[in-house]
Write a structure and sequence with these properties.
Blueprint (H helix, E strand, L loop, with lengths): L2 H15 L1 E3 H8 L3 H13 L4 E3 L2 E3 L17 H12 L7 E4 L3 H11 L11 E5 L2 H7 L5 E5 L3 E3 L4 E3 L1 H7 L4 E7 L2 E3 L3 E4 L2 H12 L1 E7 L11 E4 L6 E4 L5 H9 L3 E4 L1
């Protein structure tokens, strides 16, 4: 197993369990304990975990995997969700994107739509996510607007007052929102309060708001609120969402799309 794939697997196990010992991790990944010890040491140097005697624990109470290590989680579901979200966008619209693995997949799905292959512009894309802007900037038919701000390494999102200054001057047809959690009572939320503040402003500038989230994020809470449930027009999720959860969002006035 290549090192990047091994690190990704280790971090996902650690997030899932909260704590790993060397022997347990070696058995799960079918590698030597020496390899795991070396991996733990190197990941600790990058402050992605905390080394303990004989193992490792997550880095802090609200641990969050950097974006590059989250891309493979629920990958099939995210691809279906992204395709369904992309169909909700009409040619010529101004579309706002928050950062995240699912929103990145939505951007890719829009770039692949034949009816958006030309236009002046085919879409106006506004985002604070550097990776999304980078992927779409090569599409001459898309007008790309990037907010200012300070880059957050975990999500590649620009945050802070510079980002807010740009968003305060524009309006959007639709905001496509990636979240860490979405609950009927508590609304949409992110782990980081600065990221949540920019995402909230993006939603406020949009005529309609679409949350793209796999079913594992529904009915859960995260630290910083982005917006109330009633501010969301559409939730696009996967087919594993429970009937009870879907019904709760529908009763709150959110259209639920199962991809």
């Amino acid at each position: 197993m290549a090192r990047d794939a091994r690190w990704k697997a280790l971090l996902e196990l650690l997030v899932e369990r909260g704590r790993l010992d060397v022997e347990e991790a070696a058995a799960a990944l079918d590698v030597s304990t020496a390899t795991i010890r070396r991996d733990f040491d190197q990941l600790a140097e990058q402050q992605m975990l905390v080394r303990t005697r004989g193992g490792a624990v997550v880095h802090g109470v609200s641990y969050e995997l950097p974006l590059r290590y989250k891309a493979s989680r629920h990958a099939a579901e995210k691809r279906r969700i992204s395709a369904a979200v992309a169909e909700l966008v009409s040619p010529g619209e101004a579309v706002g994107f928050t950062g995240g693995t699912t929103t990145t997949e939505v951007a890719r799905a829009l770039a692949a739509r034949p009816d958006l292959a030309s236009g002046t512009p085919a879409l106006t894309i506004v985002t604070n996510a550097l990776n999304i802007a980078n992927e779409l900037a090569i599409r001459p038919q898309f007008k790309i607007v990037v907010t200012g701000g300070v880059a957050r390494p975990q999500s590649f999102e620009l945050i802070g007052p510079l980002a807010g200054g740009v968003l305060g001057q524009i309006t959007l047809d639709v905001a496509i929102l990636g979240v860490n959690a979405f609950d009927v009572v508590h609304g949409a939320a992110a782990h980081d309060e600065d990221e949540a503040a920019i995402n909230r402003l993006l939603c406020e500038r949009a005529r309609r708001v679409v949350v793209a989230a796999d079913s594992t994020k529904l009915g859960t809470r995260a630290f910083a609120r982005i917006c109330a449930t009633e501010q969301v027009d559409t939730l696009v999720t996967d087919s594993a969402v429970s009937e009870r959860t879907a019904a709760g969002f529908a009763e709150a006035g959110v259209a639920v799309v199962r991809a």
